[in-house]
Amino acid sequence: MIPPVLPTYNRAKLHFVKGEGSWLIEEDGRRFLDLGSGIAVNALGHAHPALVKALTEQANALWHVSNLYEIPQQEKLASQLVAASFADTVFFTNSGTEACELAVKMARKYHYERGQPERIEILTFEGCFHGRSSAAIAASGAEKMVKGFGPVLPGFRQLPWGDPEALKAAVGETTAAILIEPVQGEGGIRVLPDQCLKGLRALCDEHGILLILDEVQCGMGRTGRLFAHEWAGVTPDIVMSAKGIGGGFPLGAVLATQSAASGMVAGTHGSTYGGNPLACAVGSAVMDHLAAPDFLAEVNRKAGLLRQKLEGLVADHPETFEAVRGQGLMLGLKCLRPAADVVKAGYEALVILVPAGDNVARLLPPLTITDAEIAEAIARIDAAARSLEPS
Questions:
Q1: Same domain for 369 and 262?
Q2: Is residue 285 located within the same domain as residue 297?
Q3: Percent of the chain beyond pLDDT 90?
């Protein structure tokens, strides 16, 4: 018999009832050190006082009115994002998947309005993950994503990761945009080198196509800059954001230049819930912290500390771990044993890791994790690894 909750996840038998900063408390009282942050969502940890305050104050005032009206909280958050980024304009969604849908529409409408309706193809890359809607799974193209859900939407072409010649050969008269994650999350914490991102920007400029960056997981301070593409010094046309932008409250966004967004006029897109007062009040509080002096510098310092300790952990467990990969506080342990076993052993050691592709265990701790918690994290991962190794 099918359970009341549709069984599309193989859920761990854990029942968390409370969160405090970097910690999750199970209903039996056990305290887990959370290095997953709800898959990079709880950027400021659990129950951050500023977010709780913003949410409760807004909840006591106004929850929802719809986008038929102007929403001051939405306008404030959009202004914060524009002031801190490349973007000229922002559309708010409820999720990263919805952000993907709009990014694809925006790119195609851009070319349509310029008399090039044939430019509809979006180029994506092996190992990518852009969500689970029909367009997002078509963008991925992976068998595990599309099998059984045909017909797959046309207009997407998947290319090998790290093959510039294949990319150059794929760009043609029907190409609308290149869509890529500066750091692949689900694909195994694979970082796109700065020179490659610069090359993508140059290629897009050469052919008059748009550069769309999926920063749903790697954005909002996760790599030590507000957006990961800032490390390469490039300016994208469109950026997808979600996860950390709401600090745990469902919120997503599409940021764009004026040119890229020029085709999106009244009636071309909408969302009933997107950008509602509750979500934007919380998102604005998140931005207040990310924009605070020295916050991201502190993220980078802690990222260096965590990576250094993880490198030592890999050296201590050569039969379990192969390498550390990633950027900022978006790190991965490339495993020699099944990553799923490492994650499960982590549960026993009271530490939360997140599985990813390419046999990687992800570490996506709150950006507010402390030095003492980093030391405790290493001790618990060490215990998990030792439990898998012969005594």
A1: no
A2: no
A3: 97
Q: Does the residue 106 lie in any domain?
A: yes
Instruction: Give the model's pLDDT for residue 328.
Output: 98
- Evaluate whether residue 41 is within a structural domain: no
Cis peptide before 151 (omega within 30 of 0): yes
Closest CA to 30 of 13, 42, 49: 13
Q: Are residues 279 and 340 in the same domain?
A: no
The angle, 0 to 180 degrees and rounded to 10, between the axes of the packed helices 371-388 and 295-316 is 20
The Cα 115–Cα 66 span in angstroms is: 33
pLDDT of the residue at 214: 98
Q: What is the distance between the alpha carbons of residues 4 and 2, in angstroms, rounded to a whole number? A: 7
Q: pLDDT, tens digit, for every residue of 41-89?
A: 999 999 999 999 999 999 999 999 999 999 999 999 999 999 999 999 9
Q: How far is CA 326 from the centre of its chain?
A: 13
Per-chain mean pLDDT for the chain: 97
Q: How far is CA 338 from CA 105, 190, 322, 349, in A?
A: 39, 18, 12, 17
Please name the residue that has the structure tokens 């260096």: 304
Regarding whether 216 and 344 lie in a shared domain, the answer is: no
The boundaries of the domain holding residue 353 are: 16-34+293-388
150 — pLDDT class (breaks 50, 70, 90): confident
How many domains are contained in the chain? 2
- Do 327 and 273 reside in the same domain of the chain? no
Distance in angstroms (rounded) separating the CA atoms of residues 107 and 98: 14
58 lies in the same domain as 162: yes
The yes-or-no verdict on residue 340 having pLDDT over 80 is: yes
Domain end position, chosen among 290, 311, 341: 290
Domain end, chosen from 235, 263, 290, is at 290
What is the spatial order of strands in the sheet that 321-327 belongs to?
321-327, 330-335, 360-363, 354-356
Tens of pLDDT along 107-128? Answer: 999 999 999 999 999 999 999 9
Q: How far apart are CA 334 and CA 342, in angstroms?
A: 11
pLDDT in tens, 281-308: 999 999 999 998 899 999 999 999 999 9
List all residues 6 or more positions away from 335 whose beta carbon is below 8 Å from its beta carbon. 320, 321, 322, 342, 359, 360, 361
Which residue in the block uniquely carries the two structure tokens 């689900």? Answer: 186
